[in-house]
Amino acid sequence: MCRWFAYVSDSEECLLEDVLITPAHSLSKQVHDHYLPKLLSHDPHEITTEHEITARNRLFNVDGFGVAWYTSAASDFNALTSGRRPALYKNAQPPLHDTNFRSLCANTSTTACFAHIRAATATPIVSVNNHPFVFGRHTIMHNGVIADFIFICRDMCKLMDDDTYANISGSTDSEHLAALYITYLTNGAGKSSWEKTYPVAAMRDALKKAMGTVIKLQSSAVEASKRQANSLNVCASDGSQLVAFRCRNHALEQPPSLYYSTHAGVTLNRKYPDHPDGAENPDAIMKPEDHGRHVIVASEPSTYKKRDWELIEKNHAVLVEVGGELKVEEVTFPAEWNAEGITTGF
Questions:
Q1: Can you tell me the distance from the alpha carbon of 181 to that of 185, in angstroms, rounded to the nearest whole number?
Q2: What is the Cα–Cα distance from 16 to 103, expressed in whole angstroms?
Q3: Residues with Cβ within 8 Å of residue 70, at least 6 apart in sequence
Q4: What is the H or E stretch that residue 320 is in?
Q5: Are 267 and 275 in contact (CB under 8 A)?
Q6: CA distances from 321 to 10, 65, 195, 199, 242 (A)
Q7: E strand or H helix at 296, and its extent?
Q8: Counting beta carbons within 10 angstroms of the beta carbon of residue 95, is it exposed (0 to 12), middle (13 to 18) or buried (19 or more)?
Q9: How many CA atoms lie within 13 A of 293 on its CB side?
Q10: How many helices (H) does the chain have, and how many strands (E)?
Q11: Low-confidence ranges of the chain (pLDDT < 50)
């Protein structure tokens, strides 16, 4: 199962090196090491097993990575473009094996970034299959799996507008889910609509609709007794707003881990006191109270302060509006959407 990290702030830039490389448990090191505080490995009836937690969280994520960071470079040089847009870098090898990635992170700061490390399932290990996926100013990434994707892929594509379908470069279930989300968010208005921003509630609704479409297509393609659950830890942003879902359509099984923090950005910024590993930081030049409002959503915490991180409950979503206002909501699905089959995958 993959791992991902998202940061968004309206005013405080993070250095990519500080959030993705420096911590002992940074995303770039989660290829083989995992830290899962507060993660319950059982349900109230103690049915969920340790194997389930291991299967969805403790894998080797060695099949490549990607990072998107928002920058104003395009709008600074083009009067027809406004606001920040995502720059994108991907590679099909682990992040710390890539010296270009290290250099990029050491010299890039941003108010919004998405980063992802991949554990491939059934599709090739090539850079185009790495997350995040970008549509104009919108960025999407996913940790999990769409069950029986091969049986519903063509039907998913039929629901997309032409521009969105043409923007798909790889073969993953995640990129097709992202394309379906963009189609619903923009009402299929095509490429020009990708440059617009939409209310965070519209982003939430489009993502939920995309998930619902997947489950409905599975219901038609696979008999109920064999239909398996989907793990849908999905995050989407326009560089200012963010929605993140932690979902699994099964009455008992848990999705992969997902946490959020509104404080860890201070510890993950070398300009401020503290250090993600608890060491001294004698080079700090700012006070903690001067740090800007921010939200981090991540598969695993990357600082030593466990109290700074909240585990997102199953079938809940984090919504971050312009300015950093955060809200956690329950994501409700009809009971008939729950899968009945015995889980053999993730």
A1: 6
A2: 10
A3: 84, 85, 86, 87, 110, 111, 112, 113, 239
A4: strand 316-320
A5: yes
A6: 10, 27, 18, 8, 7
A7: strand 294-298
A8: buried
A9: 10
A10: 9, 15
A11: 40-47
Residue type, 207: L
Contact criterion met (CB below 8 Å) for 114 and 1: no
Token pair for residue 46?
């103690």
Structure tokens at 225: 């007794």
Please, what's the b/e burial string for 221-252 (b: 16 or more CB within 10 A of its CB; e: otherwise)? ebeeeebbbbbbbbbbbbbbbbbbbbbbbbeb
Q: Is 5 buried (19+), middle (13-18) or exposed (0-12) by CB count in 10 A?
A: buried
Angle separating helix axes 200-221 and 173-185, nearest 10 degrees: 130
Q: Which residues of 168-190 are buried (b: 16+ CB within 10 A; e: fewer)?
A: bebebbbbbbbbbbbbbbbeeee
* Beta strands 316-320; 242-248: pairing state: antiparallel
Query: Could you tell me how far CA 260 lies from the centroid of its own chain?
Result: 11
> What is residue 157's DSSP assignment?
H
| pLDDT value for 139 | 98
